[in-house]
Amino acid sequence: MDEKIKVGFCLTGSFCTFDRVLEQMQVLCAKQYDILPVMSYHASSLDTRFGTAHHFKETIKAITGKAVIDTIQGAEPIGPKKMTDVLLIAPCTGNTLGKLAHGIFDTPVLMAAKSHLRNARPLVLAVSTNDALGLSSKSIGMLMNMKHVYFVPMKQDDPVKKPRSVVADFTKIPQAIELALKGEQMQPIYQINA
Fold it and tell me: What is the pLDDT of residues 32-66, one digit of tens each?
């Protein structure tokens, strides 16, 4: 009964959020979750002004004790081998939302999601995209209507300068995961800025 809950923790290319997301990875490890890290091709290979790919991969390995899965071949066994009880995509970009909503699985993260969902286990999405209230809104709506898909509560991050941009409240990841494991969507999904 003391077996750890296995969390697939997937990162896609919203690089500006990586530091906040990795803080939550540490929180989950402190809560004794067993973290399986997965990164999209871009997240695992591009150096940006927010840090190098090598830095982030080494940081993740230091936090989880595991090397990052960064290939489709590495992600494919997640479902057949039942490697995850819940899968989190944080940050989840508009590109990832669109592909997931339309059944396109051409990155390690998307393959991890597809492979995980075959077992009817929860998939938790922590949105981070500049067009959530624009082009990506249709994808978000489609995913909200999919069985076994849950969202971390989100809000507009800069309504004046980026009126269509939405970012999940990453501090709510642990609670969103706990509820998703019970088949519940954390509420409210959309938060009004105070």
Answer: 999 999 999 999 999 999 999 999 999 999 999 99
Looking at residue 108, its amino acid is P
Residue type, 48: T
Give the span between the Cα atoms of 136 and 171, in whole angstroms. 23
| pTM: predicted TM-score of the whole model, two decimal places | 0.96
Tokens of 24: 């939550």
* H or E stretch covering 28: helix 18-30
Amino acid at 186: M
Encoded tokens for 156: 């507009």
Pairing mode, if any, of strands 6-11 and 34-39?
parallel
The pair of structure tokens assigned to 95 is 């590109």
Instruction: With H, G, I as helix, E, B as strand and everything else as coil, classify residue 39.
Output: strand
Our measurement of the distance from residue 58's CA atom to the centroid of its chain's CA atoms, rounded to an integer in Å, reads: 19
The residue ranges of DSSP E strands in 119-160, in sequence order, are 123-129, 149-151, 154-156
